[in-house]
Amino acid sequence: MIEVGVREFKAHLSTYLQRVSAGVAMVVTSHGKHIARIEPPAAALEPKDALAMLEELPWLRLGSGGKPQGTRNPSSLRAGTPSLAQTISELRD
């Protein structure tokens, strides 16, 4: 990692940015103090890779899209009243 002063960095900005794009990280200093760190960007994940990472999480269940289906065993608060899932579904229609 290289250190460069603010004035030097500003005067030769395109040269330093080329070095960063080639993989060199640098620290910009002002009066000997670190004020910024500049590094090449991390490789961005493709959307397919991100989805695969999510699918591997044991506590996450990916949906199929569309409206939620509600619970398998709906329960009512009182006999004869619709379940909360049914009420929400009716409000969405």
Ends distance: 59 Å
CA radius of gyration is 27 Å
Structural class: alpha+beta
Helical amount: 25-40%
Give the overall shape, derived from the CA principal axes.
elongated
Low-confidence stretches: none
Strand portion, in percent? 15-25%
Biggest sheet: strands, sense, closure? 3 strands, mixed
CATH third-tier fold name of the domain at 2-38: YefM-like fold
**Which class of the domain at 2-38 in CATH terms?**
Alpha Beta
CATH architectural name of the domain at 2-38: 3-Layer(aba) Sandwich
InterPro entries: YefM-like_sf
Family: Belongs to the phD/YefM antitoxin family.
Region (Disordered): 63-93
Protein name: Prevent-host-death family protein
What's a concise summary of this model?
By secondary structure, the chain is α+β, with helices and mostly antiparallel strands. It has helices spanning 6-11, 13-21, 47-55, 84-92; strands at residues 2-5, 26-30, 33-38.
Task: Offer a few descriptive terms.
93 residues; alpha+beta; YefM-like fold; 16% strand; elongated
Descriptive account of the structure:
Residues 63-93 are annotated as: Disordered. Belongs to the phD/YefM antitoxin family. It comes from Thiomonas bhubaneswarensis. InterPro entries: YefM-like_sf. This is Prevent-host-death family protein. This protein has 93 residues and is α+β, with helices and mostly antiparallel strands. The chain has a domain at 2-38: YefM-like fold (3-Layer(aba) Sandwich). 35% of the residues lie in helices and 16% in strands. It is built from 4 helices and 3 strands; from the N terminus they run E-H-H-E-E-H-H. The chain has helices at residues 6-11, 13-21, 47-55, 84-92; strands at residues 2-5, 26-30, 33-38. A 3-stranded mixed sheet has the order 1-2-3. It is elongated, with a radius of gyration of 27 Å. The termini are far apart.
